[in-house]
Every structure is written in C-alpha cells, then in structure tokens.
Amino acid sequence: MELDYDLLRDEQRFGSSAAEELIRQGRVLPILDGLDELADERRTAALEAIYSDPISARPFVLTCRSKEYASAGANRLGQLATVVHLRSVAHTAVADYLAASADPGRWEPLLGELARRPDGPLATTLANPLMLFLARAAYEPATTVPMELLDEDRFDEPDRIRQHLLDSFVPTVFRQPAPHGGRGPGVPSRQWDPRRAEHWLAYLAAWVRDAGTGENLDWWRLQNVVPRRVFVAIGAVLGPAFCGPLGLLAFGLFGAGRFGLFFGVAIGAVGGIGSAGVRLAAPRRFRPRIILRDEVTSGRIVEDIGFVVVGVLVGAVPVGLLYGPLPAIIIGILWGLVFVAVRRFIAPTAPREAVSPGGVARSDRDTVVYTVALGGIVGLLVGGFLSSFLNSTYTAGFVTRLSPVERGILGAATGLLLGACGLGVLILATSSWGRFVTTRIYLAIHGSTPLRLMTFLDDAHRLGVLRQVGPHYQFRHVFLRDRLARLGLQNASTHRSQPGNR
C-alpha cells in the first residue's frame, strides 16, 4: 500500500504505521488478483488456503477469469462466496467514467453521441471495459482530440474503433512515467521508448502465434529463433577457449604443456560443438532428491549412461595419461557418478511453490552456480588425493620437487579449478539460462527485442500488457496479441523489402 499511495508515508501526519493500522482496523478491502496467473496445479490449493485463512471471515474480493476459476474446483468452494460475472458496461456508466477524467469538457461531443445513439458503433465498442479504459487512457493527454472517434469515414463500425484503440494501447501504457520514481505493482522498473516497446512486443506476439506454444511466451523457448549454427560457432570458440588453458595447466605441471594445450582444445571443441545439439527441456533447479519409480525409464537410463560416459572420459583420460591406469579407473568411476548425480539433481521437476518467469530463470542460473561449486569440491578432493597420497611412482613427472603437503595443496588447487570449470562449462552450455543469454544478445543485435529482455517482459507485465500463468508469460488479451502479431509481420515484411536487406 505504501508503494502505491505516497500519502501513507507521511509520518508527521499519520505516524509510521498508517498502512498497518488501516488493515488492523478492517478499513481496507482486500482485492486478490492473479488466481488465473498461477500454474494449473496450484489454483485449487490457493483457493483452499484463501478460504481457510482468517482473512476469509472478512469481506474480500477475488478476481479471476471464469474458466480458470471453474477449473480450480471453485464450485465446491463457491458456496462460501457470492460469484459475480462481469457484463457489458451500460452507456450511462460509460458516460460517467469519461466525464470523470481530468478535463471532462473535451469529452462532451462523445457524451452527446452516446446519449443519441446508445446502440451505435462507438457505444457498442466502449461497452467493453478494456476498450473503455483504452479510450480514456489514449485521449487523456491534452494534445489528443477525442472527437476524432466520431469520424464516420474512419470509424463506421465497432471493429475499426477497436483496432484503433488496440493500436494505441502499448504506446499509451509505456508513455506513462513512473510516479516519483517509486516501485509498485503497476510501476515499471525503468522508462522504455513507447514505439520501440511496441516494436519489440509485436515481434514477440508474432512469434507466440506461430511458435506452436499455445498462448505462452516462454523465455526458454525463444532459443528456437536462433539458427543452430550460432550455438555451434559459440561452442566451437568458447569450448577450446576454456578447456585449452585448463589442459595447459594440468599437463604443464608434468612438463607436457603443449600436449595439454592440444588435448584441452580438442576436448573443448568436441564438447562445445556437441553441446549445441543437446535437446533442452524446461528450466532446471538444483534439488537433491530421491529418484522416483516413474522416473526410471529406458530413455532416462540411456541419458544417464551418456552422462556417465562423459564423466568417465573427463576424469579417466587425463588421469590415465598422467598417473597410469589404476588411478584412472578409480577417478573415472568417481567422476561418472558425480556427472550422473548432477544430471539427476538438476532434472526439471514440478515446483511445489509459486513460480514466476523470472523465478525459474534465476533457478536455472543458480543450477549452474551449484554445479560449479560441486565440481570444485569434488575436484579439490580428487586433486589433493592424487597429489598427496599416491606414491612417487605416480608423481615422478612433476616439473619441480615438492613435499607431499605442497603437492597436495597444488593438486587440490588445480583439481578445484579443473572440476569447477569442467563441470560448470558443461552444465552452462546445456542450460536454458545459458542458451537464453545467447538468444537475447542475438535478438538485440537484430533489433527484435531489448538486451535486457527479462526486465522488459517484467515491466510489460507490470503495465498490464502481459500476464503471468505460473512460469509462463501470456499476452493479456488474445486480440491484443493478434493485433500486435499483424504489426510484427508487417514490420518484418517491410524490413525484407528494403533494398539493403534483400
């Protein structure tokens, strides 16, 4: 409340707990919005929690789309509530809403038209709450002329008025400045250029309509717009760039730096290019858990075996070349188990808590951090063990004479670096968040979306252009999405038709 109403922050007049006192005295009517923005499996639990909470003993309003409310089992709980369905706005209420604007005199010609023709195109269009809001918001600035909606040559039917108002929606809401720089449910985190925002949303609307994802605008699926060769090229460059120096470091301790550099570059190139072909599922979370019976399928077993093989190669090959076959077998088995455990711990799972698009992005990013930490810990233990506790037969190739303690410290530090970077790079290359970093840079270079894409999507949600349904964004209205999609296709067609872009 204090974020949206500056008056409540006036401590001299109302004290430091004005908002808390209003709530405690029952002078605030709670309006609970966004039930339809929860994931399907969470709506019923949310309803049960609401009706079992002490808040339900006081008056409150719960807003939701009818279909989602019914699917949440509301019929069973609805006996505790009065259900109200929205209907078209009466022309008298339309007139009252427009007359309550900052300058009601500018609306008098439209009010006269509504009174004369309550069934005309204008009255029919403005009977829709969204259209009524768009009309007032679009013509609130003093530089606009509301009377242009009476032009019968341009707006002779409701559909034309509707399209005109829809076209004004995005520029209108993005034109509104943040009040006093504050943050709140309807306040964007930064100011965006309205026309560029419309261009970006038009591109995303066209993608949603054609991507086969239903209504969902999923950030992790946007990678499909990036040509596969881009990911292959990035893997071919970054893989050797990371693994080459690691190989040089590891083998250089034994006087085989050139071979280590070549070995690291080769492994990095194979791994980097190979990771570009890995099929990605939904974003992941690092959550150690017991493997359920229904997760033990032939497909997952094959994937597990693949991760075991990668782990064995990563651990056994360099150890075998440096220390011999017996340590290679031991360490290979250890790394194989580590790789498959990480793969299981970061498998996509149905969350039990409320999620948001930004939340699942952070979870997928944190997965990379956790695996880097786990790889570093295992590498530290393995490096310290190999360097300190194996006898001189396995450590005779060191380029300098060190005591067992010094060899242990050096080996542990090297193992920490190799383990953290090796496992971290593999998980990063196959993570939704890692792919999304490449995707948003690619789209920003082409001018399709802003570089800070997640921030932009969050602000579009705050301004009412998008809504959240669990981890998914959706356009607030289907005809808004379709209208923006047509604009996006027009922009793409214009771009292709320009001589320099053919």
Please provide a written account of the structure.
This protein is mainly alpha-helical. The chain has 4 domains: 6-80, no CATH class; 91-175; 194-218 and 437-501, Winged helix-like DNA-binding domain superfamily/Winged helix DNA-binding domain (Arc Repressor Mutant, subunit A); 223-430, no CATH class. The protein is 60% helix and 3% strand. It has helices at residues 11-14, 18-24, 40-52, 66-71, 74-77, 91-99, 108-116, 121-126, 129-138, 158-175, 194-211, 228-252, 257-275, 298-323, 325-345, 357-388, 392-395, 404-429, 432-445, 453-462, 478-497; strands at residues 31-32, 61-62, 216-217, 466-469, 472-475. The strands form 2 sheets. It has a 3-stranded antiparallel sheet with strand order 3-5-4. Strands 1-2 form a two-stranded parallel sheet. Helix 12 runs antiparallel to helix 18. The radius of gyration is 30 Å and the shape is elongated. The chain starts with 10 loop residues before the first helix and ends in a 5-residue tail after the last helix. Residues 495-502 have low confidence and may be disordered.
- Residue share in helix: 55-70%
Task: Give a count of the beta strands, DSSP E runs of length 2 or more.
Answer: 5
Count of separate DSSP helical elements: 21
Q: What is the general shape? A: elongated
Biggest beta sheet summary: 3 strands, antiparallel
Instruction: Return the string of H and E elements.
Output: HHEHEHHHHHHHHEHHHHHHHHHEEH
Instruction: Assess the beta-strand content as a share of residues.
Output: under 5%
End-to-end CA span: 53 Å
Question: What spatial order of strands do you see in the largest sheet?
Answer: 3-5-4
Question: Compute the gyration radius: what is it?
Answer: 30 Å
Tally of structural domains: 4
